[in-house]
Amino acid sequence: MKPERLCYNEKNGYSGTLCPHTGVSSGRLRVLLPLIEANGSWSVLFEVRSPAISQGGEVCFPGGKIENSESAEEAAVRETCEELLISPEQIGMLTPLPDRLSSPRKVYAFAAVLKEYSFTFSEEETERVFAIPLETLLKEEPLISDTDRPYRFPEDFPFELLPGGKNYPFRVRREPIYFYCMEESLIWGLTANILHTFLEIARSLK
């Protein structure tokens, strides 16, 4: 599969045609799923978070919060450059991934190609990086555990407006958690969710 086939536009979806970036829903965090090429084969690049930061030792993709008046794409590119020690010119933005990736933290992801990347990274945030061939990931079946996600209400939530107030029968949301038990490391949680969505799209375009 050629990565450019993943390009997305709002009218035709994943049409297989190169297209400019399109807007996605607003949110606090942006994540970039990096693709790298070596000897004609494509791989997905992962980071392992530094032990010195939160969730140290876990596998993730580059990403972080939007700052000031940044666009979604600018935030994803800036964070990737900071974490992988590359320049914006080395990032070929392909597409935003579907909004169904949203979580309580409002995370939206992009897929992009890294050009002339030599496995550099910032030791302040990243312990190491590794790549897994795309063909290997496409053959991998994750372990899936369905979990119930309860609502978390702020202190000023207007329960008084609802029939029954605090006793209103909210539906608990059931969501899958994916686990990719790879030789290189365990990939799970939000990172696995993003990866799973990307792989579903890639399979549909083969």
Q: Any key phrases for this structure?
A:
single chain; 206 residues; alpha+beta; seven-stranded mixed β-sheet; three-stranded antiparallel β-sheet; 17% helix; globular
Can you give a write-up of this model?
With 206 residues, this protein is of the alpha+beta class. The longest helix has 17 residues, at 189-205. A hairpin with a 2-residue loop joins strand 3 (29-38) and strand 4 (41-49). It has three helices and twelve strands; from the N terminus they run ββββββαβββαβββα. The protein has helices at 72-84, 134-139, 189-205; strands spanning 8-9, 13-14, 29-38, 41-49, 59-60, 63-65, 91-96, 107-114, 126-133, 143-149, 173-181, 186-188. The N and C termini lie close together (6 Å). It is globular, with a radius of gyration of 18 Å. Strands 3, 4, 5, 6, 7, 8 and 9 form a seven-stranded mixed beta sheet that branches. The chain has a three-stranded antiparallel beta sheet with strand order 10-11-12. A two-stranded antiparallel sheet has the order 1-2.
